[in-house]
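User: Could you go from structure to sequence for me? I need the amino acid at each position, not a summary. Structure tokens:
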């Protein structure tokens, strides 16, 4: 359920870097005593990765998909002074301000399609959702899924919405087909027609406006071709509405 705002916390301790991800996320403790996996604004992928994480993650949550809770993390670069790794320290210095955290799931395991099972209806909903958002990073090589207390969770959505890396060419992506040939859940008998019938009507203008409203202005400011954050938000809404209305991009995966 979307609340209209993301929870905001203040980082109190940098615990350790997580080197599994290319953006070098880190485990951070916050003033609510929670632990968060934080993606930093100073990473090479930049703020658009964080925008994609919020838009896609919160859209997935609104559609009932299992996405760990997201939070805005205010980070004071002074916290990272004790980090001995020069690369990590430079990243933390460049990330003073607002960053994005995902609720840490202690004891979670990486998803292995040969070990864990996923119900066909959930597999179909995840695959449909990834197709809508153009997620190129849910393959069997890199599932970006965790198993926690016996249930799957979807993580790392920074590689979605790739159209926003080239707004002048964004219209080309509206009908772009989604290649599900190496999607990690394509072998779990997903009924995409059923998922489409359920999810597509729910991705309407009201929902999309609520989701884009969760992105902080500071991550949308000074976007080339736009005069204000609200214009950028409108562009996201228009694009996703056009894509969900078309749906020629749906992959052909047997039920």
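Assistant: Here is the amino acid at each position, in order:
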């Amino acid at each position: 359920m979307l609340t209209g705002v993301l929870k905001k916390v203040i980082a109190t301790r940098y615990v350790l870097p997580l080197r599994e991800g290319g953006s070098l996320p880190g485990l951070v403790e916050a003033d609510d005593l929670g632990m968060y996996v934080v993606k930093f604004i100073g990473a090479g992928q930049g703020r658009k990765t964080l925008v994609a994480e919020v838009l896609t993650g919160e859209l997935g949550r609104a559609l009932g998909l299992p996405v760990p809770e997201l939070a805005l993390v205010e980070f004071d670069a002074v916290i990272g002074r004790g980090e001995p790794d020069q690369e990590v320290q430079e990243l933390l210095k460049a990330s003073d301000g607002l960053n994005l955290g995902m609720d840490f799931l202690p004891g979670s395991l990486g998803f292995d399609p040969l070990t864990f099972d996923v119900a066909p209806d959930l597999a179909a909903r995840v695959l449909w959702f990834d197709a809508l958002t153009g997620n190129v990073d849910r393959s069997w090589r890199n599932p970006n899924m965790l198993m926690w207390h016996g249930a799957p969770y979807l993580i790392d959505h920074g590689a979605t919405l790739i159209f926003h890396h080239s707004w002048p060419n964004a219209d080309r992506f509206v009908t772009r087909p989604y290649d599900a040939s190496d999607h990690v859940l394509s072998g779990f008998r997903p009924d995409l027609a059923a998922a489409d019938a359920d999810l597509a009507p729910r991705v309407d203008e009201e929902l999309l406006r609520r989701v884009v409203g969760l992105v902080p202005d500071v991550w949308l400011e000074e976007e080339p071709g736009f005069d204000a954050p609200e214009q950028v938000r409108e562009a996201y809404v228009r694009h996703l509405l056009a894509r969900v209305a078309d749906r020629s991009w749906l992959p052909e995966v047997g039920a």
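One structural detail worth keeping in mind: Residues 109-143+163-246 form one domain.
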